Amino acid sequence: MIKKPNSVKDVAIHLVAVLALGVGLIMLFFYVYLPNATSKDETVTVPNLTGFHIDDIDNHLTDRNLIFEVTADSGYSADQAPLTVLQQYPKALSKVKEQRKIYITLNAEKPPKVRMPKLVEGSLKSAQIQLKALGLEIGKREYVPHWAFGLVLKQSYNGNEIEEGELIYKGSKIDLVIGDSNSKIDFPAPDVIGQIYDEAVFEIEGYNLKVGVVLEETEEVEEDLPPGTITRQTPGSDEHVRSGDVIDLWVKDYEEYLKTRSDSAQASNLTANEL
């Protein structure tokens, strides 16, 4: 069978089809394949997200074609607002590929709680170290006369004494009362009337004061008071003193008290020797 030669119309149709196919392939190469192939090697710079609230993070990542994920563990910083970024990975200014996931750690909405340590009877330096380790801070410092300089005498929170072991939020401020053996501030003299002599001496010396003249009480006092009871003092509790001042004492049956105390001490020594 003899094949008829193609007409001019058929040739033109074939040429148009070939040209259309060629143009389509060229467009696919330049607009689809080439961008995808070259984008594999493109990188973007990770922005610094630290301090930004979680609601504002998308604004900093979307235009860079990055995404983020919040880690399960949260941290806490008293210097940052709740739900703000504390840490991120990869770090800021790192070079990553598009669609890379940025992992962020958020500041907790409420600070965690820690147990209050015992600061009383320890040094101020020790208190500073313990509080810092637990994420607590020293608030007000009140210095009072005491024979031990820098000794913590009281610990309180929001105006109330706080005991060892109580739960308290991180970042809380603990107020301290601290001994100051060099204090030159006037303060009321301790009231030791009614105390036994040795107890009175202990309290007086605890205020970094000294016992001055000790006298036998010659005036009439209650008969049922035991020997060694303080009946008068100078300065009195209504007067002010300074660290290092002396307090004179009047003691009921002072000589009898000293003899009784001496006899008790000798008896104790004899018992100890026998053992």
TrEMBL record:
Keywords associated with the record: Membrane, Transmembrane, Transmembrane helix
PASTA domain sequence ranges: 40-108, 110-180, 181-253
Transmembrane segments annotated in the record for this chain: 12-34
Cross-referenced SMART domains: PASTA
Gene3D superfamilies in the record: 3.30.10.20
Pfam entry (one): PASTA
Protein name, as recorded: PASTA domain-containing protein
Organism of origin: Splendidivirga corallicola
Lineage, uppermost ranks: Bacteria, Pseudomonadati, Bacteroidota, Cytophagia, Cytophagales
